[in-house]
Please model this.
Amino acid sequence: MTLNLGVSYPWVLLLLPLVALPWLQMPLDSRDHSCVAALPADSLSRALQIGLAVAGSAAILATLLGIADLHRVEHSIPRVGTGAHLVLLLDRSKSMDNTFAGRRADGDEESKAEAARRLLSEFMQKREHDLFGVAAFSTTPLYVLPLTDRRQATQAAIDTLATPGLAYTNVGDGLSLALSYYRDLPMTGSRAIVLVSDGAATIDFRTQEKLRQYFPELGVRLYWVFLRTSGDRGPFDEPENEQEDTPEAMPERHLHKFFQTLGVPYSAYEAENPQALEQAILQIARLENEPLVIQEKVPRVNLAHLCYALALGALLLLLSAKLMEVRAWQA
Amino acid sequence: MASNNPAWPRYSSNRHFDNNYASVEPEEFHYRIRQPASGLRPGFHRSIQIGSGDQFREYGSLLRQPDPRRLDLRASLRDPLQQLQVRIYNQRSTLTVCLLADLTASMSFGGTGGKLRLLTEIAASIALSAFRTGDAFAFYAADTILRQELLIPPTRRSGLPWQIAGQLYHAAPAGNHARGMLAAVQRVPARTSLIFLVSDFHWPNDLLHEVLGRLSGHIVVPLVSWSAHEYVPAATFGLVAIRDLESGQRRLLLARPGLRARLTKAQHGRRSQLHRTFVSHGHEPVFFEGHYDPRQLTEYFLARG
Model:
């Protein structure tokens, strides 16, 4: 760590040569003596003599620095954390308001949105060093919160999952929006988009090309947490016959296939109930524990009071020496 | 108070009436020397000068010493050449007593009650003793140079002890080395004299050897004048800062019993070292620490017979 020190009143430092004074003159009145050189050397006395000069210099230096208002300037230090830049891409389609069983949520069973909100909150609270961004999508993508380390804002953004859902699912534009969060951002750690959705949709050809270009370019990993409603199809389902294997008939399977072609690390997790969702999120947490370099801001620290304390200590030393002074060599 | 211009005396005459000066009352001691004195004038000390003394020297012809009162008949009859023989005696002669005083800054140590006071007492005492014995007294003081204004050539003047006490008491010791002693040595009379060398002898060894070497023809009595606290401070515990009067060197000492013992040891060490040096030149030194006692000198001369 570098110590970036600054002073508010630099002109006070012009008095710094005063620091040499204690080396020219002892704080005690000297008695005349006829043969100083003939006296035997005494290491304790010598140490005291140097100590008093050091204390004198320290007192003057510390007082000057105190008057000059010494402080450590605000600076940022690079810090390696186990964090990631995570964008939570949330599905806000109407179906998210249903439970995993496909019914409307009532008091007993929580909805998919509610479960996702709860678990994502926990996930976020556990990961102190991550930056979180939140985006949502329905028919159109919704810009919610840029990448930030403000937990409160992220929490509030995740909480919006609790509000009723909107309309349909448009994964392609949502991903484009999530990717845009990383644009113009220095590559200081691992990046990942966590896509939470309960359904899939076809992505048109142009958007597919765009995603194929930007995912590797921005180095963003993709996690897809699929909240599967019982009875619905999931990304890992195999078609029963050849005719069924189309993007329209099995959008989840084809979206999964498309994600696998993105050229970036990608995993999909299928969650059929809150416990499975929890497992999926834990797995993501494990994967994202890679080292991350971030710039942490350290605010200005005022050191003047420390200087004064040091000066006081040095002066007390000198005072005690003065009180021990013998004012005569001869009686 | 001291003027560096040698034309101006470093004392003023009205100081003769000062209280400080009056407080120095010269005390006499007795001295004698082993070897014959060289003075021409009849005096106190044995000498090889032919004269009206009581020490028989030799027989000589009446023609050589035409004093018929001293005719020796038996010797005349015994003489094969039949010449009249006269007893020839040595007279007792005078001696010149010189005081060489070191007036470097270190001699001002201790203030009015310190080494300068000691030097004043010694000088006055020697001057008085020399006067009472009938010897001439000369005074030379030096620091970095010979202090011309304090110089007193050999004289038998009365009242000298008080004059010296007065002028020394107000002579400001100065100078950071004692090489002026070499110039003072050159002014000492050529014939064998009794020379008192008064200093604290905080000199470099080569200077000491040089001074003693140049005084080898004389009877030298080194009087080592130290204050009572030359090495050991009065206080038993505490911090004391000291500054050398000559070099200006500063030191801090934490006075404590352990250091006190070492300082005392250093003082004894210096004492025996000085003693060895003087003895190697054939002189037995006298040490004064803090106060002067003339009986110490009387005993010194009695012991050396």
Summary: The longest helix of chain B spans residues 257-280. The CA atoms of residues 44 and 291 of chain B lie 29 Å apart. The beta strands of chain B are 42-61, 85-93, 96-102, 136-142, 152-155, 194-199, 219-226, 238-244, 250-255, 286-289.
